[in-house]
Amino acid sequence: MSDKRDKPDMTSSFRRRFMHFMVHELHLSVTDQGVLVFFLIVPLLYPLIYTFIYNNETVREVPAVVVDQSGTTTSRQYLRLIDATPDVRLVHHAASLDEARTWVNRREAYGIILVPYDFSDRLHNGEQVNVRLFCDMSGLLYYKALLTANTNVSLTMNADIKVDRAGKTTNREEEITEHPIAYEEVSLYNPTNGFAAFLIPAVLILIIQQTLILGVGMSAGTARERNTLRSLVPIQYCRGGTLSILLGKAAAYALIYIPVSIYVLGVVPHLFRLNQIGNPADLALFVLPFLLASIFFAMTLSAVVRHRETCIMLFVFSSVLLLFISGVSWPGTAVPPMWKVVSWCIPSTFGINGFLKINNMGATLYEARHEWLNLWLLAGIYFATTFLVYRQTIRRSRYRF
After folding, report:
1. How many Å apart are CA 283 and CA 310, to the nearest integer?
2. Of 75, 130, 273, 353, which alpha carbon lies 20 to 30 A from 217's?
């Protein structure tokens, strides 16, 4: 009979301790202004600001300078066609290349189009002619716009020249001569070919992970600054055991970040009309292990935070690095093996790739099972490391559990 009475008592006691630690951590998170900034203000505002900056999706009307050494009707036609494209705007006709460089140096233009003096003569003689394009490579999107416009205009003029020299009589023959092979370009998963649709989904996942790391780290640093474990582990409940502390704190962070994740991953893309074709149920099931892995990852890292501001110096700089090694901002096949191994230890790597598969590509949870299972694996690993970290911290303290 005593065993039957003890088990409910133990369960009830664990439940009370768990609830206390959860409520206690929620109270600390809400009353600490620094933690509140990372847990609520940054996730609420930063996605809006970041997405708004890139909301135009593509760069249009890139200013360019022209050096037309030919000065013929054909060269002027080439330049008019470039100016008519949505990508480039010709802002000045320079007399020399040196003059054109001064415009680029003053950031009044981002490219130089040099038409050679023999442009028209070579075309009329049936010879190949080269138009030189000088681009400011400090902005790759400027380069893309300038190169795309010049390439498309060159292909259009080439087709017209072939038709004129072929001497065909019917429209169909001219069409075949102009385009012997008909092709159609389809942009998969990014219909606008935009920068926001390409990068923002990855950034949103990274925001969730990084703000968790910073918020949890600041909370742990503050607790240690105040008096070792007096805030990290309340004294009056110090006999609750490591597991109840860990699960109570994790539950508090999860309660905060479940609505935050819905806002960041669901509301923000909808507000800016980014691509969202995934099944909401699959997304919810996928985000669950990502949140758990990120929470326990943050709690593990918080062990090295001894002061309130330490987490900012340690972890803020890593955001760009984590974005690159995720295989989205930089091709995954080009990531060095060492950094690939590092990326497999970070929840955001699998979170970003799985979220893109489901949300942007319309994959099912089964089709994203590789990332989903790896997130569960990371959640289990970091749960174990957090448990060991908290157990070691408790043993070093003067309190007994």
Report:
1. 34
2. 353
Rounded Cα distance between 248 and 23, Å, is 8
69-99: pLDDT as tens digits: 998 999 999 999 999 999 999 999 999 999 9
Judging by beta carbons within 10 Å of its beta carbon (0-12, 13-18, 19+), is residue 221 exposed, middle or buried? Answer: buried
Report if pTM > 0.70. Answer: yes
Instruction: From residue 332, give the alpha-carbon distance in Å to each of 151, 335, 348.
Output: 28, 5, 14
Asked if 371 and 354 count as a contact pair (C-beta separation under 8 A), the reply is yes
